[in-house]
Write a structure and sequence with these properties.
Length: about 325
């Protein structure tokens, strides 16, 4: 039986990943500061531990795991990452975790490690045109990420690849593009655009109004959690190290995302544009490299994932779960 470790198993992507690995028949240990918020973990063993502490990471990596998935990070949506108010904790916490993981894995002789980086590493100046952003993997340098979150992710990519060269780690690195789906943050200040918009639409009355940060013409692509996991597992078990984008190339404006969600809800809503953190003007996953190297790219339309996500969030709104957990 394959032995697998998931770090960050209490988070959105990590908890879904644990469930997928268990469905494959793996033995899974999950580690995080907290349990998954919305459903019990499927892990065979779940350890509550602060991975900023080196001893906790060494304890977690106590056997020759076949695969290690490093998803633990201090993160959130635009309202958390782009305000500047959390820059120091984001950089410190995530960097400490990644340094500890690399060091412990090298000393324990653990080889195959997946690291979740982010599309936030791409240069700000490559994403000023909302209709033609450049997020090709080789465009990452000269480096100029638009946030400290992006700078930390880029540093950790290079740190893990240095350990791969010097200590034989078999790194697999993916740059995620806006992963969304049920059981993700939706009302705690760390939610990303699809969840925030689903919540606002669910809370609004038909014919009402919802607030949107900026002019809404900024563009993004959003990848449903199930397809994200397909890409993660395919990359981890391949001979390709990356870094590679894992994201959809179905680019939409935030205004279009609002309209799509309103259509799913069966509501007619007005958009009120207000000041707020918006990040870069345009971002879209370039999937040419993953197509060449892995023969795979996401295929499901954005609307399909939005339907599932909206129904899940609307159910929570309808149940009166108004306060952040």
């Amino acid at each position: 039986m394959k032995q697998v470790l998931v770090l960050g198993a209490g988070g959105f992507i990590g908890s879904h990943l644990v469930t997928r690995l268990k469905s494959e028949g793996c033995w899974v240990r999950g580690v995080d500061l907290k349990y998954p918020r919305y459903s019990p973990s499927a892990a065979d063993e779940f350890v509550i531990a602060d991975l900023r502490e080196p001893a906790n990471v060494r304890d977690a990596l106590d056997r020759p795991f076949d695969e290690v998935y490093q998803l633990a990070a201090d993160m959130g949506g635009a309202g958390f990452v782009f305000t500047g108010a959390h820059d120091a904790e984001i950089m410190h916490n995530s960097a400490m975790i990644n340094l500890n993981v690399a060091d412990a894995a090298a000393k324990r002789g653990i080889r195959r490690i997946f690291y979740s980086s982010s599309a936030c590493i791409y240069p700000r100046e490559n994403q000023t045109d909302p209709q033609d952003p450049n997020c090709r993997e080789d465009s990452a340098y000269p480096a100029n990420p638009d946030s400290e979150y992006g700078w930390e992710k880029l540093f950790s990519e290079r740190m893990f690849l240095s350990f791969a060269r010097n200590f034989g780690l078999e790194m697999r690195i993916a740059r995620f593009h806006n992963i969304f789906g049920p059981e993700g943050s939706w009302n705690d200040g760390r939610e990303k655009a699809p969840a925030a918009i689903c919540r606002k639409v669910a809370e609004a009355r038909d014919g009402g109004e919802i607030e949107i940060w900026g002019d809404g013409e900024q563009t993004r692509s959003f990848l449903y959690i199930d397809e994200c996991l397909d890409g993660v597992l395919r990359l981890t078990r391949s001979d390709f190290a990356g870094p590679v984008n894992i994201g959809s190339d179905e680019m939409v404006s935030i205004n279009r995302l609002v309209d799509m969600t309103s259509e799913i809800a069966g509501k007619t809503l007005r958009r009120k544009h207000v000041p707020g953190p918006v990040g870069v003007r345009g971002r879209n996953s370039d999937n040419a490299l993953i197509g060449r190297e892995l023969g795979w790219a996401p295929a499901a339309p954005l609307r399909d994932g939005l339907v599932s996500t909206y129904r899940w969030i609307a159910g929570r709104v309808d149940s009166g779960e108004a306060d952040a957990a």
